[in-house]
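Researcher: Next sequence.
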Amino acid sequence: MKKIYSEFILGDMRACYVQDEETGSVELVLLPADMAYEAAYREKPYPDSLVQIKLSGDTYAGGYAGGRTMRQSGSVMNLVFEGQDVTHSGAAVRERGASASCPATESRQVCEKEMRKAEDGKGGTVICTAFSDKRGYRCRHYLVWKQAKKSLLSYTVFENASKDAADLEMLSSFSLSGISPFVGADESGMLKLHRIRSVWSMEGRTESQLLEDLQLEPSWGGHAVRCERFGQVGSMPVNGYFPYAVMEDTKSDIFWGAMICHNASWQMEVYRRGDDAALSGGLADYDFGHWMKTVASGESFVTPTAILSVCRGGGIWEISQRMTAALDGVVDEGPVSEQELPIIFNEYCTTWGEPSHQNISGILEAIKDKGFSYFVIDCGWYKQEGIPWDIAMGDYHVSEELFTEGLERTVDAIRAHGMKPGIWFEIDNVGERAESYQKTEHLLTRNGRPLTTSMRRFWDMRQEWVQKYLEERVIGTLEKYGFSYMKMDYNDTIGVGCDGAESLGEGLRQNMEASLAFIRKVKEKVPGIILENCSSGGHKLEPLMMSECSMASFSDAHECEEIPIIAASLHRVILPRQSQIWAVIREDDSLKRIAYSIANTFLGRMCLSGDVTKLTDAQWDVIDRGIAFYKKAAPVIKDGYSRLYGPKVVSWRHPKGWQCLVRTEGGAEHEKKDGLLAVFHSFNGEHDGALEASLPVDGIYQIEEVYSDAEADVKIADGKIVCRIPEDMRAVAVLARKA
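Model: Next structure:
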């Protein structure tokens, strides 16, 4: 039998700590605040645990779990619940059940530290739930709520107070149990898992499956474990899946969401043995990501943070934007110039890796006074004679062939045209024709040999020598020329891991931790720098990297018809104000095609590239009107709430049908305002020309401005915005405001 040990109202969420009376184990059940937890009848009432841990040498779970999951191992069974410390807005409270063996002093110190971060003058709550193992191990789980937030932060600390080292093979950042208290033991077809897949140039495709379709319904005897473990292994954290999962109770219309903040291997698991399901996640474990961490006596280990939320109604768009809003405050504190969502020009799709003072000067003349704030010199500026730019990165000497009078002259020209200069680096990797490629004593190895992929090797970011080298070549270049912007690219993955630690996976984790430390060093040495997070497009669109950067390349789909599909889908996983979307304009583009490309950028941050030195006045007119429209739409892009309408687009590469993204001003956690942005795209066929989307019911909207290549037939009536687009591959954008 299970009972509530403690519960907390955290904004519009309820955190219930549920204890099994027989085993003493404690689970975390999240619910909307207006819904009470009731222990429902269960035919197979298997207990679960708030902390999922596996120590080397401990018993693996039975029920055919081996190779499928490490959850509910003997290490979990050894945990004894000690109690809770809770801090509300700086006032510590010892919860009932806490004992002398509970690490109260340490947990309270961490609680108070978290509270200082959480309060920000607004208050909050930090809940520390403590467990111990008679061998001298302790686990503390932290749940952090910041005042007015609609999400929670979750992480776990493992402390080794024994006399011997302990080898961790798994430690969860979060574990949500009791999904769902409102589904009966004999009911089926009620629980769904929503995931977001990602591959190169097609980031953000949602898949939704019933648990039964994943064979996650309990067996007749409750004996065999059911588990769907998924994630990513390597240094591209969004390579296959985003670190994101949503569970849905379709009967009660409740959604549970989780995102993991980590820049390397991660995993999530949907686990079911009894009638209830559980969702947990964190670092990829020993089975999935070859991760084992040795924690010496007296030392501790802290997991990556997870973002959690729960809500009733609103679908996956609501739960997703509650989680992405966790970064609102961080981005608000970014560079001052970023707060108006300025426009970027990147010369890559103009020069294709051959930037020079001559061609950049021509571009600057073509785009002067057009409203651009940043000009980014992309890859190739370091190209040496006779060596292709794409295999030369790592040494970073300015090309004397391309910049015959030095890079200073070009940077000065950018400033003279009223723009902040930016530059591209692939910090962590070296190309096969670079001198650095042969410095194998400073490169990552696996099984004693240089870790080599197609055209690349990888710096061992843990080495002091490497950090100093990169400080000279990267930070030194930024400082010497006064760059205000850096595009950080990363174009291959390390894979399972590297030498230099107790496991390949731990080697990877340490290396990527050191990589992050270098990014923070850049921000320290070059205050106010604008950082762009790029990894062959969107392979690093996870919350940790997004919290360190002003924006990110949304995808490498620079000139593709599927750009608006990708860009709209990403509203579920990153803030649109951080999603840099390219409009690549070609001299043979029709006006309709130009407007289609420009309208794509209204789904995030506008970035232009292409044949800007060869365009006609008519082509520039479409671009100029789009730039003016974007600037008016920027407040809604910056702080808004999105919904996507239209039929399912089966093939993104060859899209058919249409879509409309409606974004209302005022984000998931902010006061609703009067502005509205609707961006329509028709694709190839399979639409009757009448595209319509619902509008919020809290007001009557009037159209203020319409953008397209020509006159557009748009109206608002009966709570809908209707756009008639008889042509394929055309875009229409609308700004409206409450009457």
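Model: The first strand starts at residue 2 and ends at 10. The chain is about 20% helix and 35% strand.
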